[in-house]
User: Fold this.
Amino acid sequence: MAVLTEYGYMQGLNFWVGISNVGGGGFVLASDGSSPPYEYWRSNEPSGDGHCVQSVKSEFFGWNDNDCENVVDYLCEKALSGASCDAGWQELVAGKCYITGGALMNKATAEAECSGLGGKLAEPETLEENHAIYNAYFTDLWLGFNDQTVEGTFVRDSDGGVLTFTFWGHNQPDDSYGEDCVNFWVTAAGWSDENCVIASDYICQIDAQTNCD
Assistant:
């Protein structure tokens, strides 16, 4: 399902999404006719303008229906092959398995949950990994970063290393009310610094080649 919304947003793209209602009825995946795993319509959409779906770049991006004959950019996706993760985990990028908790909790509890599974809170290091997480789960998630030691200097929880890749949402980080932990903020398709005690879902990461046989 070509729903690489976050990547398209960063690139400033309007692009076709692999969803349509060409056959009438509700919108379904073009690939297999099943219902989309999530929907992200803009306000007052779908409006009946067409049978195909376009992701639109704006301050508050999202989808709208459009005439399928219109000329719009596109993004493609391809499933990974040779996955080597345990049941319930997903190999979103080569060599790494991910799983979400499916429950809301503070960051310390989320860290303990990931540790109990033999992993750690996810620490996306590249744009590819970042948008793979976003598109797979599409919900607010604790990540394994913080600036608890030096305000404004965000480091990895696992080893204290300073981040070399970031993907902050609009006007983030803002350290509002002492926010020292990092959450994947789905509304802005980017990261946000958050108070470590708020309740959020979380995502764990583990190395596929050594722990997901």
